[in-house]
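Chapter review: from sequence to fold.
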Amino acid sequence: MTAAITTHDLTKRYGKSRGIEKLNLEINEGEIFGFIGPNGAGKSTTIRTLLGLIKPTSGSASLFGEDIATNGPRLRQRIGYLPSEVFYYDNMKVSDLLRYSASFYDKPKKEIENRMYQLAKLLDLDLNKKIDDLSYGNKKKVGIVQGLQHSPDLIILDEPTGGLDPLMQQTFFDLLRSENKRGATILFSSHILSEVQKLCDRVAIIKDGKLVKVESMKTLRASSYAKIRLELAAPAAKSSFKLAGISNMAAAGKNVSFLYRGDVNAITKLIAKLPLTNVWIEEPELEEIFMHYYKTDNN
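The token string follows.
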């Protein structure tokens, strides 16, 4: 299988500050690949280096087998990019901005314009409005259309769902699946695990600029934790929580919290024996979910 993205010991430092350190990634053509980690982990630095927006300190990166450092302009013709924050010329109309953006691509003008109209209709984006009259969510929609209107071979998304309401997020995910069926490779960077779980085939976990693990989503789901918080009618002894899979337990009076990985039937049986007044079962933060990976990496 051909690789759409390959990095070899890719490193970027900002003086003495950390950026990314010896990243080795291989993302296959036609794959939807998640890139996850806490804010500040190095996701955006990696993406900007792949795009040729910043130069690596050492190491290399190639897209579709071509080195980004020597073939950047040609390769960027094949890329659609949506940054985490979008900034535009406020006085321009949406349609004028998108046509201006389309002019940078060596594709038939009519083809890109038709695609622009299709995407705008799908996302409920008013092309006649001025940029400065748009909400944050609608500005994000402009970024989506801008990144996809030239039907790129590689779509790179950096925290793409900020500002989109839940219904529009679902429309966006459906659009990405459609782009992938067309043949596009997608690199989806996020700190929100649930987004990655909905969409991706494989995922890379990054922390402190270093690659911690590359996993299939099937494996990742099997190892995911639940974050459980209990409010009790009366304090309970720690011995009440003896069950394999419970970790990071914290108790303060009648309030107890812990992470759990294991059979959901076993934990519900345990909880049912306690004098409960309330219970919350949530998706943990990435730091909590991947604590076992991080500990392994640090060791």
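Two observations follow directly from the output. The chain has a mean pLDDT of 90. The first helix runs from residue 43 to 50.
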